[in-house]
TrEMBL record, chain A:
Transcriptional regulator that acts as a repressor of the gibberellin (GA) signaling pathway. Probably acts by participating in large multiprotein complexes that repress transcription of GA-inducible genes. A motif (LXXLL motif) lies at residues 358-362. The DELLA motif is required for its GA-induced degradation. It is found in: Nucleus. Gene3D superfamilies: Transcriptional regulator DELLA, N-terminal domain. A motif (VHIID) lies at residues 260-264. This is DELLA protein. Keywords: Gibberellin signaling pathway, Nucleus, Transcription, Transcription regulation, Ubl conjugation. Residues 34-101 form the Transcriptional factor DELLA N-terminal domain. Residues 308-340 are annotated as: Leucine repeat II (LRII). Belongs to the GRAS family. DELLA subfamily. Residues 229-294 are annotated as: VHIID. One of its GO terms (cellular component) is nucleus.
Automatic annotation (TrEMBL), chain B:
GO terms for molecular function: gibberellin binding; hydrolase activity. Belongs to the 'GDXG' lipolytic enzyme family. The lineage of its organism: Eukaryota, Viridiplantae, Streptophyta, Embryophyta, Tracheophyta. It is found in: Nucleus. Residues 111-325 form the Alpha/beta hydrolase fold-3 domain. This is Alpha/beta hydrolase fold-3 domain-containing protein. The active site is at 192. PANTHER family: ARYLACETAMIDE DEACETYLASE, GIBBERELLIN RECEPTOR GID1C. PROSITE patterns: LIPASE_GDXG_HIS (PS01173), LIPASE_GDXG_SER (PS01174).
Amino acid sequence: MVPYETAAIPIANPPATSSSTTTTTTISKPPEIDGLLAGAGYKVRSSDLRHVAQRLERLETAMLNSPSQHLSLLASDAVLYNPSDLSTWVDSLLSELNQSQSLPSLPSDLSDLVSNPTALDGSWMDQQLPPPTAAIHNQQPSQLTVVEEDSGIRLVHMLMTCAEYVQRGELSLAGSLIQDMQSLLTRVNTGCGIGKVAGCFIDALSRRVFAAGGGGGIPGSAYETEILYHHFYEACPYLKFAHFTANQAILEAFDGHDCVHVVDFNLMHGLQWPALIQALALRPGGPPTLRLTGIGPPSPDGRDSLREIGLRLAELARSVNVRFAFRGVAASRLEDVKPWMLQVNPKEAVAVNSIMQLHKLLAGPGLDPAHRPAPIEAVLGWIRSLNPKIVTVVEHEADHNQPGFLDRFTESLYYYSTMFDSLDACALQPEKALAEMYIQREICNVVSCEGPARLERHEPLARWRERLGRAGFRPLHLGSNAFKQASMLLTLFSAEGYCVEENEGCLTLGWHSRPLIAASAWHALPETAAVSPDVAVVGGAVM
Amino acid sequence: MARSNEVSINESKQMVVPLNTWVLISNFKLAYNLLRRPDGTFNRHLAEFLDRKVPANANPIDGVFSFDVIVDRATNLLCRIYRPSDTDEPPNVADLEKPVKSESSSTVPVIVFFHGGSFAHSSANSAIYDTLCRRLVGLCRAVVVSVNYRRAPEHRYPCAYDDGWTVLNWVKSRAWLESTDSKVHIFLAGDSSGGNIAHHVALKAAESESGIEVLGNILLNPMFGGELRTESEKRLDGKYFVSVQDRDWYWRAFLPDGADRDHPACNPFGPKAASLEGVKFPKSLVVVAGLDLVQDWQMAYVEGLKKAGQQVKDLYLEKATIGFYLLPNNAHFHTVMDEIKKFVSSNC
């Protein structure tokens, strides 16, 4: 079969007209870091080079003196962090080698769960996905015709031109171009690939250009949102990765604590929590008392959906003998939540869990005449006041909050076409169609909404690092064990092409080398500690 | 070992390579030791965790932008394409595959690059190889296509060669890569295992009736071997980052089960290989580092090409170690870059 490309939009970090560079390098390095090694992905101060070299020699000697079985075991079981920070990396390897003369024991809790799917009650792990070949061959044309390929490229050209018109305020030109694109769409396969993506973006543009009152997203009830969310959860691994990685970090942070409290910024159906409850149940030494506070929008029709979820989770906890209490906090916006609503007890170990929620706080007004802090700062401030053991944050790895419309449009075109591509490869119907609708709503919000209505203000990891650093949080690095578990999770999906990457203590999940979501973990320094901006840069060394 | 001895051994090794290069390659060496298991399996999760990667970037950085393309969905074969840019203006998303002839009236070389890693390590998006490919773009005013081939031990011979062959065909059939004469001007290049792959893909192109013409092969410290233990292997074993034992491990991981190192993939001019005489094989530039223990096999490769009537230039760098081309901090680096530039421009 002749090799082909399915999407006209290749995978890359998109062009941006601003001078800021790639998502990985927006933090400028201090001048004394060796520039050539930085280019190779390693951060070493020039003044430290000799010291690092000596440690490497010592490490080599230590490795030569270890039996090779021991080394392999070390490689499999030791939890290693942040390989970019060479100095710390070499020292941690040295101490691992020196410490363990006997075989180290496997951290078994979560790995047992991964290899025994039946241990998880009602969770996604029970699903067996059929082999991908049938699905892929049915969905994709065996070869794009020349006409289709040309039309695909033309559509992309037209989309970019249209976005430019919109940026310049030339709405009538944009409008007529939209009509041209809609007719060109009829000649392209909108079931997959470029046709599908173009269709979404043309729709979003048309809502922006033609909607009365300027701009409008796709209306929908909270209930509909939940359904779409659930299908997005099932159809592709992004949310599962988010939950899995956050749970791993939370589990480790709760080690040794008997009273623990998780605050979930967006409970939805509570899909994240059965796995954590199970893992806590199996903890050596016995489970802690677990409190879960779930935040979610108020239910419109008199149901108390938060409470319903809480009851189900309580059932599960009871079945595995974990003492459990649930509290629901109904709020339409995260900034409406006040810390006293969470009733955090100073003796508990607190974990704050935010999966794709923080970016919505960036929609608040920039300048407040009363000089109140911006919503994001207010919320980060009260999170800090809870003194959490860990704050788990998962966000889209994209810059969809740029002030210029064209930049935003271009970035989201790249981002969502990669995401659609990944969906094409692995999802089954009907999950896939509804998952696509979920994504389509996001696209609409990014493209056709403005002001407080534009909630999907995704920002890349580098910028979240800066924000959280300024707010007094320090990174807790996710290590090689979390990486390995996440990679193993992905092998449960028959579609190869997803990849987990380590990025200075954070993990990203992407499709074919383009990271799409980023997971990170944080803790707060005690309130009295001075917050110094440059301390945030080299994560490992600070701790 | 006494403290002072330790320091002087350190110093003498480091005088051969700059300190930061020494740190970089030693770190690789030790990390790789952790990844190879004695039973022949490979700790892939840890390898991917440790590998420092960079995303593709359609914003031109120093005149080069990049983007990734899926060439074959069935095997998830990805390539990273690097193109020169004259402006700081990022290309429009639809212009990533703008025809090269619209930007240049002279011929545009297309270099298909195979990264090193002894068939098991690294990827097209590894930071060190992303950097190297970007350099080649600027140096040769070329489009570089870096192949993310399948690696050992999960994918043995001939997977990497097959992937190279797939990409070669793909490159040949891209209208946007044609120069003004309506032909794609193709070079193959690679370091370490990538050099080995370049040879075998060129061979396949020559032997098949494909009509694909490869204008030149650029092999940097190519990975070859054989059953015999050569003098350089014995003399340099373990001295400069590489050992015979690790070379053996990688061959066992790549070659088919039961094969020995005289398999033609490993030893293309050995007792089991077919002759290259009369084969329309491309001109080759072979760079050999004088402190690489594999150099006798590399020089044998050069001799083999010559004896078969093929055109080859070898560049022997006496004091160079493996990986000298990764950082631009030594004279060998610049020598090699100049040679590559001359080779591409004179054969394009």
